[in-house]
Design brief:
Layout: E1 2-7, E2 17-22, E3 28-32, E4 36-40, E5 46-52, E6 59-64, E7 75-80, E8 84-89, E9 94-99, E10 105-110, E11 116-121, E12 125-130, E13 135-141, E14 146-151, E15 157-162, E16 165-170, E17 178-181, E18 187-192, E19 199-203, E20 208-211, E21 217-220, E22 230-233, E23 239-252, E24 257-273, E25 279-284, E26 289-295, E27 297-301, E28 304-308, E29 313-318, E30 327-330, E31 335-341, E32 344-349, E33 352-357, E34 360-368, E35 373-378, E36 382-387, E37 391-396, E38 401-403, H1 418-421, E39 429-431, E40 435-439, E41 446-451, E42 462-463, E43 468-473, E44 483-488, E45 493-497, E46 503-507, E47 510-515, E48 522-526, E49 529-533, E50 550-553, E51 563-568, E52 571-575, E53 581-585, H2 589-598, H3 602-612, H4 615-627, H5 631-640, H6 644-654, H7 659-669, H8 673-682, H9 686-695, H10 699-709, H11 713-726, H12 734-742, H13 747-764, H14 810-813
Antiparallel strand pairs: 1-26, 2-3, 3-4, 4-5, 6-7, 7-8, 8-9, 10-11, 11-12, 12-13, 14-15, 15-16, 16-17, 18-19, 19-20, 20-21, 22-23, 23-24, 24-25, 25-26, 27-28, 28-29, 29-30, 31-32, 32-33, 33-34, 35-36, 36-37, 37-38, 39-40, 40-41, 41-42, 43-44, 44-45, 45-46, 47-48, 48-49, 49-50, 51-52, 52-53
Length: about 800
Amino acid sequence: MRLKVSQLPAPKHSKVVTGVGWTATNELYSVSEDKTIQRWKLDGENQSKVADLDMETYVTDFQWYPSQRASHSEVFAIGCSDGTFRLMNKSGRTEKAVEAHSGAVICVKWSHDGTALATGGEDGVLKQWSQSGNLRSKLAQSDRAIFSLCWSADNQSILYCSGSYLTIKPLRVEAKQTKWKAHDSTVLKVDWNPVNNLIVSGAEDCKYKVWDSYGRQLYCSKPTEFPITAVSWCPNGDYFAVGSFNVLSLCDKTGWAHSRSRVNSGSILSVDWTSDGTHLAGAGASGAVCFGQVVDRSLEWKNFEVMLNEKNQVIVHDVLNDNKAGEELEFAHRVIGMSMNYGYLIVVTAKTCSVFSSSNFSTPHIFDLKGTVTLIVQSPAHFLLVDNVSGLSLYSYEGRSLSQGLKIPSSAASVSSASSLQYLQPQQVALSSDCLAIIDRANPKQVLVLDALTGKPLADPIKHDLEILEIGLKQSGLISSRTLYFIDRNRDLHLAQLHRAANFKLATMVDTAMWHESVELLAAVVDHKLNVWCYPHAAYVDRDLVQATKIVIDNSHFHSGAQLTSFSESRCTVRRSDGALTTLAFSPYPSMLYRFVQAGQWTRATRLCRFVKDDVLWTCLAVMAINGEQLDTAEVALAAINEVDKLQYIQYIKTLPSQESRSAELYLYRRQPDSAEGLLLQSKLIYRAIKLNIARYRWDRALDLALQYKTHVDTVLMYRMHYLASISQAETIPRFIDLASKVNVDPAAVAAKENQEREAERKRGTPYESKTGFVLEQKPLRDPTTITTASPAPSSITSPPIAPPVSVTDEYAAVTTDPGDDLIL
């Protein structure tokens, strides 16, 4: 990516150009100390002189009203050297002049919604005005002049620079301001992007710096040859422009420079971007107006490279086919954005959206757009466009509109309008085939989960204690197991399932994360190294084994700010903090294992693990088999990684007489006792449901079930009495005291009823049949729910007592499978 810069050979202004601004129709207006207003075309051609300013003062700053409404779209505000600011129309006629400061008005800035105007002056005063120019409040008084200011995304705070300090001043009187020393000398320009919430500043110390909204420095440039006189964010927040003496630079949001261009305009005093972020204009101190166009934008997906050249052509090249020239895609309007994933290329222009299939670039699906697209999000089934008119709109890859203007629930009123939705960034939105997740801008501590087609809530919001910065949805699997990752303000990585309230903390010191595009793998840059979790769903099956499913790429060392750009097949592409792209490869076997399991080919999955002989792969297979209730495969995999206690518990589960009881025990293994109880009750296994609660010391729940189903009340009372006797305590629960006096507890009768229940279950149930043909000899295990000791309350997994150690030999780890089922690698 680079900035293509152009300017007229001879300046149209005879003196310093103090301000430039783009209209909604992409016409540029410039004002100068020669007291004229010039109008320019998008390509840099001068159209005409709009007006001669009939006033004795000089213009110091200039900005168009930000609203698209017809009643205000032709109004702009200018600051003047005589201490006034003026509201003027498109023809240059003054609508209103307001006495604002005792010295010159150095900077004027409309709020993002256009309801307020802020001014900073030579007298060091910061003031807020209404849309019509009436004074609302005097916000701050500084001992130095205020050279630049900007609004926060929610229009509730103003950032201004005075001397070498930056200050964030909230509009609410009771709120505390944030002030920090930003540079070694006077700060000349500052800008605050509403999309990424980052701040960039430039100063006389010849440096530009990037900050977060808390005043923490994220990047500091090396000293340039001349002071930094202009900085300006691109509307989408991906990059920003930096102006200096005869230099205009394009920089990434992390700070490193894409390009540095020489111009002949003197010091660049002001920079303004078009609303689509494709062009910019700079005001030169020599009277010149320079124009810049962002060209050579590129992206990659698998074996395809896509580049936008300066002729507005999109070149698609298949790197695996060297004999074939790249596809040249022509567009009538300027290209605003591109995205390629899941086999489809999406190209958005100022008027249309074109969808190309990777197998056929000659016949795209094309449809018209209502507004300027600010974000493209793809999923395997459809894609989402965010624009400043319709807001969220969902389309199929055939170009068919699935929903227009998705409504956000009222709990997120601040993001419900299209004008606010345009400030969304890719890290705040996640899309899958069946649902849409979005960070609530009204409450960043929660994530809204919506139906992708209707926008209605699909599940309860995912809530967290800290502000959530980044989210991502798993693309593979069913919606019942849909998992979302999120990174919070402390840079901790968490997993959350859409239909479960509990979150699982996976890692700390995380810079970025990304799901694999087709299988359940999660990659993240953790503590400056690349980590890949081969089966993160293990957090909801056996959290003891989660970290054992992780691969750490030892040769990957990244500085803070690294970002994952793609994750497909067995490759990860990471953009380092210095802008360089690094591609890292890892083992292809986890993806193969996942596909075998997804197809139900457990025998092939086992043979693959024996072939590779890797503990990570065996651990993944063990957890997958337990989750899929494939006990034979789980037995083999747990033996291979020497998890003897878990192995014996699986063997105990195989001895249970019915499928329902085995499934319930596996729910207990996954730490889901309520699900286990529900399954047992649904299967009419009341005795096992009662014993499950007894084993977990949930005495009240066990008694409730016994009373509800009018059975085994004496069983509950007997186990309760044995428990109290073992810990030498007296009964304190009134219900148990009352029932003990009414119900006769006969241990022999209780034992007889228990044997009767087990025998009845054995007759109606189906014993487990081993599919391997190999039976491990074991001693009989007693009922694991029997309580014989006064130990603390058990964990959520009710494992049976450990029998004499089982010798886990190589012969057992090499259990033979079907010899005719060859492994295909």
